[in-house]
Design a protein that fits this description.
Length: 350
């Protein structure tokens, strides 16, 4: 992009006091493909940050010094150009302090790039599941992450102009800024990747093993309560410091939700807490409350799960009495599910 073009972009992105931007035209969001190619050293391996279900992600440096993350959509994103641009406009309007800022896109033939602000502390999974790095996250930081993710999801569900269901909420989709504040990534991907499902059921299930509620895994039915379920699993991972897929206790593998449920019922839930946390007694009650809230989120019946508005309220007011949770969904029949390389699912519903 030439300097004059950058100036023009700036004119179209008017920063407001509340740190949001007015996005007036699709052109204001479009980056020249060659600029992004150069910024990522030609999408070189050394710039590659990782790869998810939609394609690889690269770090880039724009000429003005700005650091970016570029998601290079795999070529079969299956959407016409106009439809794609319409969706880009909608997704660009989703702005919240707990969402990764979407900066724009690039189109060149069948190439589609999504451009985001770069998050220096990468994704939560790379820290919380790492035996050394997890020490960077004390309880206050983890609590701040839980509350921030809850606020971001509430915004997607209720406060944004669109009603967005994330559908792939998990630790690798929580990015961390310089101060370890959480930013949800990959929101709106169903819109940008042409997953047709406006009526709450879909023939292409996209999600990640262990985070999906039973109604989504088995029947492709999704709702805001699917995200609530994934959020509950995420909270348990943050507290235990372990992945739900390979949770271990006393060298035995167990499904995280069944273990959490049993521990909570037997009053031994404090045993679940990540031993590296070295919890002070003042925080213990707060952690136990978080475990209780997470169990409300992962209840088998979607109707019983709280909304994200209720979750935010419960997380922020310790005086609010919590309901008793019913048994979580943990008996997952995995035989009918085809797992892709990234651990994401692509399943034809029956
Ligand atoms: N804005 C960003 N800033 C810094 N790193 C990022 C950014 N976006 C993505 N990444 C990195 O790239 C990796 C791949 O991201 P991506 O969202 O494509 O995949 P994923 O979350 O692992 O899988 P899935 O596509 O199934 O959600 C992430 O784990 C993260 O480390």
């Amino acid at each position: 992009m030439s300097v004059s073009c950058l100036d023009w972009r700036k004119k179209n992105l008017v920063k407001k006091g509340d740190n949001t931007m007015d996005i007036s035209t699709i052109e204001s969001l479009q980056y020249d493909f060659r600029i992004i190619e150069a910024a990522t050293n030609g999408f070189s391996e050394s710039n590659r940050l990782g790869e998810g279900g939609f394609g690889p992600v690269y770090k880039g440096n724009l000429q003005n010094g700005q650091e970016i993350a570029v998601k290079r959509l795999s070529k079969d994103s299956g959407q016409g150009e106009i439809e794609f641009k319409n969706e880009v406009m909608l997704v660009a309007k989703l702005q919240h302090r707990n969402l990764v800022r979407f900066l724009g896109f690039s189109l060149e033939g069948t190439e589609r790039l999504l451009i985001y602000e770069f998050m220096p502390n990468a994704s939560l999974d790379q820290i919380i599941f790492d035996p050394t790095k997890c020490a960077l996250l004390d309880w206050n930081t983890r609590n701040n992450i839980i509350k921030g993710v809850a606020r971001g999801l509430l915004y997607l569900h209720e406060d944004s102009r669109l009603r967005i269901i994330h559908r792939d909420m998990k630790a690798s989709n929580v990015l961390l800024d310089e101060e370890m504040n959480p930013k949800i990534a990959d929101f709106g991907m169903a819109r940008l990747f042409n997953i047709q499902d406006t009526h709450g059921s879909t023939s292409r299930v996209v999600g990640t093993y262990g985070y999906m509620p039973p109604e989504y895994m088995m029947h492709g039915q999704f709702s805001v309560k699917s995200d609530v379920f994934s959020f509950g699993v995420l909270v348990l991972e943050i507290i235990t410091g372990q992945k739900n897929q390979c949770f271990k206790i006393d060298d035995r593998s167990e499904f995280l939700l069944s273990y959490a449920w049993r521990s909570w019922r037997h009053d031994t839930a404090s045993d679940m807490i990540d031993p590296t946390l070295m919890v002070e007694s003042s925080s213990l009650q707060e952690i136990m409350r978080n475990i209780h809230i997470s169990l409300l989120c992962v209840q088998n019946n979607a109707v019983d799960r709280p909304t994200m508005a209720a979750v935010v309220l419960m997380l922020n007011s310790s005086s609010l009495t919590l309901q008793l949770p019913s048994e979580p969904a943990f008996s997952i029949r995995s035989s009918s599910i085809e797992i892709s390389g990234s651990g994401s699912y692509n399943q034809r519903s029956s």
